[in-house]
Amino acid sequence: MHNSGISIWFFIGLSLLVNGMLITGAGISEYMNPPKIPTVVLFHLHANIWWGAILAAFGALYCYKFYPKHQS
Amino acid sequence: MMAAIALLSSDRLVHLSPVDFVIIVFYFALVLAIGFYLRSRANTGEDFFMAGREMTAWVAGLSFLSANLGALELMGWAGSAYQYGILATHWYWIGAIPAMLFLALVMMPFYYISKTHSVPGYLKLRFGESSRALSAISFAFMTVLMSGVNMFAMAKVMQIVLGWDINFSIWISSLTVAVYVALGGLRSAIFNEVLQFFLIWAGALLIPILGLYETGGWSHLKVLIAQRTSNEYVHMWSGLGSFTTNPMGIHWTGIVFGLGAILSMGYWTTDFLVVQRILTAKDIRSAEMAPIIGAGFKMFVPLIVILPGLLGLAVLPMKLTAESAVAAGGHSYNDVLPLMLARYCGPGLLGLGITALIAGFMSGMAGNVSAFTTVWTYDIYRALIKKDASDHHYVNMGRWTTVVGVLISVGTAYLVMQFASIMDYVQALFSFFIAPLFGTVILGMLWKRASGPGGFWGLLCGTASSIGMWTWVKLDPSALRYVALSPNAKALAQDMYQALWSFVVCVTVTVVVSLMTKPKPDAELTGLVYGLTEVPSIGNLPLYQKPIFWGVVVSVVLVILNIVMW
């Protein structure tokens, strides 16, 4: 799986990285321009900011570790 | 973009923002890109139908688990948790883990050594052509119909949850699946299943985290549920001493013998949809480790399926009802997962959650289609229609069968749209084959005296008995007291006992007919039957790398979890 072509883990890393960045970006945007009525329960926790960041961090790690040129 | 959003969105359960749509579109683009990328690696039959038999234990194991982690599965069991409480967890623990470990440690060596392409292929080697034909035709027929039923059900969910047009959902998802499976074959399906596994956890894990935060932790959640329902909703075993002391109307014998010993064994060890993933493993150790890895993760799937349903019981202000009793503006049990998503997930997170559901649906459909393609090409077309064509011919047949399989699924989806009751019949029909097939395969692997006619007639009679019991209860509901041993049994309990009896019929007929007919010579059973097969060594590995070690670890954790939730 790792010896020929792009590893599946790279695709997974890419997916988590892009989704994580989009979610964090949406969360920051919502934090800077909060709606008059909170859209979700526990809005004050701003879950999309930290959850998106966790996903992006995992994704970045996978992308780096399984980037095609890093494989032997 | 906004115009498209407006077109797609009207009356709906949740409201998506533009970033949510970007996440969904990115998912579709990524799976298509994977399909196009893998096209160059699907040129031979082994590549297209068996993913080159080069998957690591992790990839095969996660794919094995994901093939069963479809969107309807997630939403359905979250709904069951709301309806029946923590009892629904049995389908993830005793109803899955022992069977997965049994597959890994007992059955996998025989599947793997025989180098079969499919479960019907194993039946051909062990019992002969008639057993393969019966199994292959029924599997191919039911798989493609199930795919269509699931397609319609998912399109309906998308209509209710997102307000999407049913035709739009059916065609966009089926065309995407057709493209990436026809291009990349089983490898493409497996890649997307592993991707889906990560998306589901990323999209759904936040619900239990935030839910437990809101309710004040597990202990307080149990108190809230007991206050709103009864104490039996939060205990897995203590209410199973009688049919009337638990919300499911089931006795512990049904759970242990019907679900744990027969139905789950049948599904996880002989349903080719899931077994096919393990057959792609690169060596015998990976083939044994893959189901154990799947079992390890399966134990924790209730966190993202059952727990959201239980949280819904505790925190949702409205009362959910059965689908048939939903009033205007109300919601059914099956809506609990989208409702919990909408409760906690803001912009972006909601898109990821919905993407996880779409990914679950599409990879489930890809799994059905890739299994159908293999069985059709190897066990029906090559076995019965065109025996001596080139490998290239069979690969082309596989690509076209993928497209045709998807189109038949679409046709079935539209048929179900016209005649909704077909859905119940198809889902019931599929379950008819599972338990008897397990009886046939397990006797074939463990008892060398089982003969070809014994295998065939056992499978046929077991299946016929299952259909007979189902029809009997359909025509005369009071027959439930005989089939499920209690007039209070619910539908799930009926399934358990139906599976148990059809297994017993299959095994009995197989044994009797085998003893009356001539067995196969031992020389023809080498590599197929216990006692006549030398299982290749996995090498002189340290203990922590041996499948048996991890099998024991998973078993111990399973026992501890059941005691904690007793």
What features would you describe in this structure?
The complex is a heterodimer of chains A (72) and B (566). By secondary structure, chain A is an all-alpha fold. Chain A has two helices and no strands. Helix content of chain A is 61%, strand content 0%. In chain A, α1 packs antiparallel against α2 (47-65). The model of chain A has no long low-confidence stretch (mean pLDDT 88). Chain B has a single domain (19-564), classed as Sodium/glucose cotransporter (Up-down Bundle). Chain B has helices at residues 2-8, 18-38, 45-50, 57-66, 71-84, 97-113, 119-127, 129-162, 166-204, 206-215, 218-228, 252-270, 272-279, 284-298, 306-315, 336-344, 349-385, 391-418, 421-446, 452-475, 480-483, 491-516, 547-564. Chain B starts with a helix and ends with a helix. The chains are: A mainly alpha (72), B mainly alpha (566).
Features:
heterodimer, A: 72 residues, mainly alpha, 61% helix, rod-shaped, B: 566 residues, Sodium/glucose cotransporter
* Count of DSSP-assigned helices of chain B: 23
Total strands of chain B: 0
From the spread of the alpha carbons, the general shape of chain A counts as: rod-shaped
Mean pLDDT of chain A: 88
Kindly report the oligomeric state of this protein.
heterodimer
Label the overall shape of chain B.
globular
How would you sum up the major sheet of chain A? none
**Major sheet size, sense and barrel closure of chain B:** none
Kindly give the count of domains of chain B.
Answer: 1
Amino- and carboxy-terminal Cα gap of chain A:
12 Å
Number of helices of chain A: 2
Question: TL;DR?
Answer:
The complex is a heterodimer of chains A (72) and B (566). By secondary structure, chain A is mostly helical. Chain A has helices at 8-32, 47-65.
List the helices and strands and how they pair.
The complex is a heterodimer of chains A (72) and B (566).
Chain A: H1 8-32, H2 47-65
Chain B: H1 2-8, H2 18-38, H3 45-50, H4 57-66, H5 71-84, H6 97-113, H7 119-127, H8 129-162, H9 166-204, H10 206-215, H11 218-228, H12 252-270, H13 272-279, H14 284-298, H15 306-315, H16 336-344, H17 349-385, H18 391-418, H19 421-446, H20 452-475, H21 480-483, H22 491-516, H23 547-564
